[in-house]
Predict the 3D structure of the following.
Amino acid sequence: MSTPTVSTSPEPASPTEPPPSRLRPRDVARVGGAGLRTRPLRVFLSALGIAIGIAAMISVVGISSSSRADLDRRLAALGTNLLTVAPGNTLAGGTATLPAESVAMIRRIGPVEQVTATGTVPDAKVYRSDRIPAEESGGLAVLASSLDLPRAVRATLADGAWLNAATARYPAVVLGSTAARRLGIGAAGPDVQVYLGGRWFTVVGLLAPVALAPELDSAALVGWSAATAHLGFDGHPTTVYTRTKDSAVEAVQAVLAATANPQAPNEVKVSRPSDALAARQATDRAFTGLLLGLGAVALLVGGVGVANTMVISVLERRAEIGLRRSLGATRRHILLQFLAESLLLSALGGAGGVVVGIGVTTVYAATQSWEAVVPAWATAGGMGATLLIGVVAGLYPAIRAARLSPTTALATA
Amino acid sequence: MLAIVGPSGSGKSTMLHLIGTLDRPSAGTVRVEGHDVARLSDRRLSALRAHRIGFVFQQFHLAPGRTAVDNVADGLLYTGAPVRERRDRAAETLVRVGLGDRLGHLPHEMSGGERQRVAIARAVVGEPALLLADEPTGSLDSASGAGVMELLRDLHSAGTSVVVITHDRDIAAGLPRQVAMRDGEVVR
Ligand SMILES: Nc1ncnc2c1ncn2[C@@H]1O[C@H](COP(=O)(O)OP(=O)(O)OP(=O)(O)O)[C@@H](O)[C@H]1O
Ligand SMILES: [Mg+2]
């Protein structure tokens, strides 16, 4: 016996299936932005957290890049092919001397283009006048100098003129920048004199600071023959400056000691002044890393702030979420809306931070008279980090918003 | 056009949400356009709400900082229509509900009755087959309430099915059909 079954029909396909809900990408941005516009103060404060982190990182990177770029520029101008040769210590512990003919020997090395030397005049002191007690010499060295010294070390004159063949034989002196300041001498001239090694010397020139040979800054430079004639100089060079073909700097550096003093190469100190400048930069780099880490922590805290703002935003706007669901928003549309809001929020902070960071770099560089350099990777990285934070911070609140059932959302109105 | 009446907590809103696919039944089946709501995906349910069903709530749920036109245009937001078209149709619909002179007004610049008209315009701007109104006159004085009911009747005569939840005996009496509910059940 069969009972006739009344078929409740397996769903007659509707003749006019509605097209799927759709939210245009531009509208995603629009609804995300609308959520921000109604709470400007809160948006400002939570974007500020991100902005501080990004600004800190951009300015740290910007300032250190600007300073590095400036150093590179200076090194390029000064040349990295300057090598100096100086006497070291003897095995017995005393101070060694360079042979008088070392300059001539070094000149014979093929790739060496310039050789020049200074020699310390051991017992000579320099004073402003003859009435100052002998002890107060102010730590200024008196050096006998070859005539081609300024060219080799790229020294320039702040005032007056460098020694020439004539003045090198007379009691004439050129003062380094520190020496001039200590002696209270602001200008060179025929009537400007200092009391040097027991007699009056005329100050014919003042040097500007010498970046590659800072030892010249605190020196009083006299001609080689004047030093021999008037100050009892023994003619032994104490620093030999060489300029070498750029391609052969290392090779020359390797043979300089043996060339300068074949009998005792181990008593010779060879150095490359541009290395010292670059090394100072390297110690700055560790400090930069530390500051960068602090900026990253600030950024993280900013991200937590954004997440917090988004959680509150979702809680406050349950009715809006319910309404949007009733208007046809899918869960995905709600998710996208809150993700867009979070992204915009942190992007706002990121953009502000980049602007402030570039501003800080520009101002700081201007005070140092550097050219401001903010590498593109720093800006791009900052914005990238910002967007990542926006997604991560917004994801959990957005998922909660999307999971909310429309009826409970509407019931909390 | 029908009225749902019943005491507070009797399940009127729940019924309306079920009809409107905002909720799914824990027992029994709800069919909309022949589809079992419980078995449709979120995407398909949302599509139904975007194109076939309009909602009106007692609290209006208008976005505070946005003009009447923008609020109404949001009724088409999830249809994927371009913004120009949404705003044009919103303006037309506002004229249709008698708010042609309020297009650029913000919600707080309008009376309760006007706000509810804006909310109704938003519900019908997509020309849904079914309009569900949960106590649309609940927060209005009787004059504005009467105006809103008048509007709903007009929409009905223009071809939209309208379901209205109301506590107001007179309003219910004025509608062609009433469904009474008590303790979660339809009693009449
Ligand atoms: N048939 C039912 N099955 C399960 N739960 C129900 C049913 N009817 C009502 N409820 C529950 O009763 C509670 C009140 O229902 P609802 O909000 O729909 O009442 P209402 O008639 O709209 O009341 P009010 O007039 O105050 O708005 C809700 O939590 C709802 O889940
Ligand atoms: Mg209710």
